[in-house]
Amino acid sequence: MATASKGYAVLSAKAPLVPFSFDRRDPRPSDVVLDIEYAGICHSDIHQAREEWGPATFPMVPGHEIAGIVTAVGNAVTKFQVGDRVGVGVYIDSCRKCENCLNGASHYCLEGMTGTYNGLERDGKTVAMGGYSNTFVIDETYAVKIPGNLDMSGVAPLMCAGITLYSPLKHWGAGPGKKVGVIGLGGLGHMGVKFSVALGAETTVFSHSAKKEDDALGMGAHHFVDTHVEGALANATKGYDLILNTVSAEIDLDPYLRLLKLNGTLVMIGLSGKPYAINAGTLLNQRRSLAGSMIGDVHQLQEMLDFCGEKNIVSDVEVIKADYINDAYERTVASDVKYRFVIDASSF
Ligand code: NAP
Ligand code: ZN
Ligand code: ZN
Prior knowledge:
- This protein is of the alpha/beta class.
- The chain folds into two domains: 3-159 and 315-347, Medium-chain alcohol dehydrogenases, catalytic domain (Quinone Oxidoreductase, Chain A, domain 1, Alpha-Beta Complex); 162-292, Rossmann fold.
- Helix content is 22%, strand content 27%.
- Strands 3, 4, 5, 8, 9, 16 and 17 form a seven-stranded mixed sheet that branches. A six-stranded parallel sheet has the order 12-11-10-13-14-15.
- The two termini are 21 Å apart.
């Protein structure tokens, strides 16, 4: 039977979000049904709701940082039981047979991952509706278990902001003896700081908001560079192994590339939707790399949650009610959130 749901939707590009009722698809044998408790607001939701990444699918119920409780399971489900704490992230399915799907990289599925919203499910007709709602239905393969000791509101942002920083930090070997920089102390960036510090790397925050310095140091960052100060980047200490750019807007990359040591890597994570100009001379000097990274595979998502359970890591959140979502969008764009808005799903 279809699951009646209440949420908030964008009905056309750039329109404000409004209350919206809809049905979730009929659960299949391998599906779990959940009551959502909290849903995070990612800057990617805003980019898509405003078509900053190109044409989008409307009506759109955004949201891909979901934490909830299982209320029903299909008869083929083995991983979950009613009452379990369950998380859903940025994708809900993939082809399951390509080289990447078979090798722990299903988020890079060669047929394209199936996003949690803003597109069709793999049946080619059901519009995927995201987490700004009170229920969800997902194949158990793409859902993860939330450790019992973690606060659910702080867990929701781990499902995108968390994994998106955990994955490149692991891939490029952040740890003791490594110097890591995080550009932008927003939803993604603050998780990058927490993970980089927990992994043992010397960690620097590059921020255009001087007022965030105390918070950055409180999260364990070893250094803070206020990028609005004239010459701050040119005079900054060099020798970084890894710099992660989480900024949602376009910035000049060259001053950051210059901070990388021999073989160092600048990873693009923020996606403004605009192309960049690169100075090749800065790359070839010191054999520097410019790379990109997108979220993380569902297995790594579980690994990250288990790591968070062990280290007691969650996101710093401002919990809001549904009728504040439009204000939260404006404040996120203005870099005015500590450090992730999370919607209390009981308010839908
Ligand atoms: P967010 O919470 O809005 O944080 C972005 C941060 O960027 C801000 O807090 C601010 O940090 C900095 N910033 C914003 N505007 C700036 C400007 N004009 N100049 C310099 N710095 C600026 O956003 P988010 O949710 O963390 O997402 C960040 C970006 O990552 C978005 O583009 C999003 O779409 C993308 N994203 C990518 C992936 C992926 O898989 N690669 C996943 C999720 C999101 P300071 O105030 O500290 O300067
Ligand atoms: Zn996201
Ligand atoms: Zn695939």
